[in-house]
Amino acid sequence: MYRILTFNNISVKGLERFPRDQYETSSDIAHPDAVMLRSHKLQESEVPEAVLAVGRAGAGVNNIPVEAMSRRGIPVFNAPGANANAVKELTIAGLFLAGRHICQAWAFARDLDGTDAEINAAVEQGKKRFTGFELPGRTLGVIGLGAIGVEVANTAIALGMNVVGYDPEITVRRAWQLSSRVDQAHSVDELMSRADMVTVHAPLNEATRGLINGSRLAAANPGLVLLNFARSEVVEEQAVLEALDREHLAGYVCDFPSNALKGRDNVIALPHLGASTVESQENCAIMVADQLREYLETGNIRNAVNFPEVVMPRGGKGNRLCVVNANVPNMLGRISTALADAGLNIEDMYNKSRDELAYTVVDVEGAIPPAVVETIGAVEGVLRVRVIE
Ligand SMILES: NC(=O)c1ccc[n+]([C@@H]2O[C@H](COP(=O)([O-])OP(=O)(O)OC[C@H]3O[C@@H](n4cnc5c(N)ncnc54)[C@H](O)[C@@H]3O)[C@@H](O)[C@H]2O)c1
Ligand SMILES: O=C(O)[C@H](O)COP(=O)(O)O
């Protein structure tokens, strides 16, 4: 029986991927084999020694101590692209909300008092405050052309906008998906200087913390509208407030409310709703549940943020050995020597590395005795050894 410890509200459709006769899933499990979560800020101490994998039913993994998990030989899975459409829709909605002052206008209309004739008079008198602008012909800057950024860029093109994009590490897959009408910026500064509206879709990490700062806002076009559905810390909030006060920035639409943003006319802060659709929650939970199951049951790794992709079809009737080790020379030699010394014949083998880690899957004929596992586990640099029968 495998045990999955859950944090947050994980879609039932995802939890149903774990067969009840083989899996127990609960937010209250003493000795979990895996952890599944959404935005819960996971502490290393919440991951017991025996945990084999962590699954993030979503995109961002900045809430997970990924480096600590890597040191312990634990893959962290996520669900690339599974919530991209949901975030794209809300971001595109954000363009309209800002361009037409919809939230501010709605608040104005909602609070009108008096007779219908008086309300009508106030409407006609007040509506000039909410004159907006249309999207065709405006330039949208998209920072981060991953699963979400590409969808946002292509939709903005379809809406008649000009789009300029910046992503220093765009993948070949995303480049193929991106409309050829999206213009490339070579830096954030160049993008900011060319755009009327800017939307950020890069992950939060040490390189992107404070990516949108005071000097970048100062160099941007006056009247810029900034959208942030990535992470709060990618944008320096104080710099945004100052740029709004100076009216250099015309609006800030984000998914991350805070005290400082409260009560500001030109700020629309939503309660982290980017991925909060039934479809996206199901997609993410199903994708991550399937990846966790595959890892637990076969050792295969798909979509881990800290491990290489290793997918080897299960052959024969023997055991499978899965070894996580430091990416240093001669590990493979020592693993195969230990197997050969025990008289075990290797049927198939796959070894791949990523950064400081390497992962090896070996199918052998017959059963692997515990002593062999112990020998391999004692090799310097081996972080984890597991046998799947
Ligand atoms: N508001 C929400 O509910 C919500 C939902 C999903 C994702 N997100 C956030 O959005 C982020 C992006 O999601 P995604 O699914 O598109 O991820 P993704 O990994 O597919 O794309 C991220 C892209 O950002 C690029 N990037 C990295 N550093 C960059 C930099 N310095 N400048 C420009 N581009 C850079 C990467 O090369 C990559 O192409 C997530 O990491 C998460 O933090 C928020
Ligand atoms: O990175 C993500 O996938 C989003 O921020 C979604 O977070 P959530 O799963 O808590 O809604």
What does this structure look like?
The protein has 389 residues and is α/β, with parallel strands linked by helices. The chain folds into three domains: 1-83 and 275-307, NAD(P)-binding Rossmann-like Domain (Rossmann fold); 84-269, NAD(P)-binding Rossmann-like Domain (Rossmann fold, 3-Layer(aba) Sandwich); 310-389, 2-Layer Sandwich (Alpha-Beta Plaits), CATH 3.30.70. Helix content is 32%, strand content 21%. The protein has helices spanning 12-15, 66-71, 84-99, 102-110, 116-126, 147-158, 172-177, 188-194, 214-219, 237-245, 278-298, 331-341, 370-377; strands at 2-6, 23-26, 34-37, 53-56, 76-77, 139-143, 162-166, 183-184, 197-200, 224-228, 249-254, 267-269, 320-326, 346-354, 357-364, 382-388. The protein has a seven-stranded parallel β-sheet with strand order 8-7-6-9-10-11-12, with helices on both faces. The chain has a five-stranded parallel β-sheet with strand order 2-1-3-4-5. Helix 3 packs across helix 6. The longest helix has 21 residues, at 278-298. The chain is elongated and about 90 Å long. The mean pLDDT is 97. Bound molecules: nicotinamide-adenine-dinucleotide and 3-phosphoglyceric acid. Residues 58-60, 80, 83-84, 87, 143-149, 166-170, 174, 201-204, 207-208, 229-231, 255, 272, 274-275 line the site of nicotinamide-adenine-dinucleotide (NAD). InterPro entries: ACT-like_dom_sf, ACT_dom, D-isomer_2_OHA_DH_cat_dom, D-isomer_DH_CS1, D-isomer_DH_NAD-bd, NAD(P)-bd_dom_sf. Pathway: Amino-acid biosynthesis; L-serine biosynthesis; L-serine from 3-phospho-D-glycerate: step 1/3.
